[in-house]
Amino acid sequence: MNKASKLLRILRVPEYRTALQRHRVAAAVEHAAVLSALDVSSVVDVGGNRGQFALFATHAFPSATITSFEPLAGPAGTFAALFREHSRVTLHQVALGAEAGSATMHVSGHDDSSSLLPISDHQNELFPGTAEVATEAVTVGVLADFVDTASFDGPALLKLDVQGFELEVLRGCESELGSFDYVCAEGSFTELYEGQALAPQIIDWLDDRGFSLTTVYGPVADDIGRLIQADMLFTARDRLS
Q1: Is residue 8 part of a domain?
Q2: How many domains does the chain contain in total?
Q3: What does the pLDDT average to over 142-147?
Q4: Surface-to-core class of residue 89, CB atoms within 10 Å of its CB (0-12 exposed, 13-18 middle, 19+ buried)
Q5: pLDDT per residue over 26-70, tens digit each?
Q6: What is the pTM of this model?
Q7: Can you tell me the distance from the alpha carbon of 124 to that of 27, in angstroms, rounded to the nearest whole number?
Q8: Which tens digits make up the pLDDT trace of 172-221?
Q9: Are 212 and 234 a contacting pair, CB within 8 Å?
Q10: Which SUPFAM superfamilies does the entry mention (predicted)?
Q11: How many other CB atoms are found less than 10 A from the CB of residue 1?
């Protein structure tokens, strides 16, 4: 979706328009064509940034509870201001990973490109302005430290947008995966962050644990048409049968 098309979609929805004008938060409407068709009552939003996906989710799933995770202080502050009056949205200012502890976040010139993994030169070549500009110490936990997934109203969606750290987050919530009906994860097909798991590894890992890749959407390609990244929707196989 190009920027002009996205802006037009945002401006059509009053709550999206208000969020953009007051907080400079653009709802993640690029997910609408695929995710709005799902029946979802609980959302776990890992990599919440300033609230782009949570804002979309409050509109797409009007009765769902949304639990978001964003470790960086700046984006988390914007998120908290945006959802101050939303009782269905909860924010935890922590990162999720394979184990609890502390870590260094590599802060990008575009904060939504920040990662717990070092940002490669290739990332900045493909997306100018996303090189590291600072670091920030953050707390890392596993999903079970913050959420009792057994108490979820289903169906439940796990969304991951953590800039190459997706597989580590999944490992940290492996025992909770049975509580989810859907997993939506951004996947890269070339290394943008040092040591990241690429899309085929994520696909294989989730397939081994009962999730089938059902849709790939929002592809981003380089100037000669090589696929860089895309969003991937996985569905629990027991839901497909």
Answers
A1: no
A2: 1
A3: 95
A4: buried
A5: 999 999 999 999 999 999 999 999 999 999 999 999 999 999 999
A6: 0.95
A7: 24
A8: 999 999 999 999 999 999 999 999 999 999 999 999 999 999 999 999 99
A9: yes
A10: S-adenosyl-L-methionine-dependent methyltransferases
A11: 14
Residue 1 inside a domain? The answer is no
**CATH number of residue 197's parent domain:** 3.40.50.150
Q: Which residue has the tokens 């935890």?
A: 92
For 209, the token pair is 């644990």
In a domain, 145, yes or no: yes
Q: Give just the sign of the alpha carbon dihedral 142, 144, 34, 4.
A: negative
Question: Nearest Cα to 173, choosing from 134, 213, 141?
Answer: 141
CB 27 within 8 A of CB 49: no
Please, are residues 110 and 123 in contact by the beta-carbon 8 Å criterion? no
Residue with tokens 């653009």: 26
Print the domain residue range for 38: 26-240
Q: CA-to-CA distance for 112 and 227, rounded, in angstroms?
A: 20
